[in-house]
Amino acid sequence: MPTYLVRRVVLALVTTAAAVALTFALVHLAPGEPFVAGAEERFVPPETVARLRERFGLDRPLGAQFVRYVANVARGDLGESFTRRRPVAAVLGEALPNTLLLGGVALLLSFALGLGLGIAQATRSGSWADAALSTLALALASVPAFWLGLMLLLVFGEWLHWLPVAGMTDVVAGPAPGLAHRVLDVARHLVLPALTLALVNAAAVARFHRAAMLEALGADFVRAARARGLGEARILLAHAFRAALAPAITLAGLSVPALLTGAVLVESVFGWPGMGRVAYEAIFARDYNVITGVAVVTGVLVALGNLLADLGVAAADPRVRRG
Question: How far apart are CA 105 and CA 111, in angstroms?
Answer without folding.
Answer: 10
